[in-house]
Amino acid sequence: MQLSIITDQINQDFETALQIIHEHGYKYIEIHNVFSKSIEECNDKEVKKIKELVQRYEVKVTNIASTIFFLCPLYENDQVTLFNPEFYSIKGNVHAFKVS
After folding, report:
1. In terms of domain of life, where is this protein from (predicted)?
2. What is the pLDDT of residues 71-93, one digit of tens each?
């Protein structure tokens, strides 16, 4: 297990958060909100920018803290207003965060 820092808890601006994390010598991050949205809402261009910044600041991503399962109804009568059963918002983007 690696000690990691949630980037949006350091700063809402992803690059600023990475700068601070790097300056303090930490190597592992968790990504939840980035570019003023949840990670699963990022498009391909934003994913590319995330990867570039992660490499520039020499950190590794230990966790993608998606809200996608938080929004899934657990029981038959549950009503979650933001739930999209087709998961359109992540279609084609999850593959970009290949674990290495």
Report:
1. Bacteria
2. 666 677 876 655 455 554 445 55
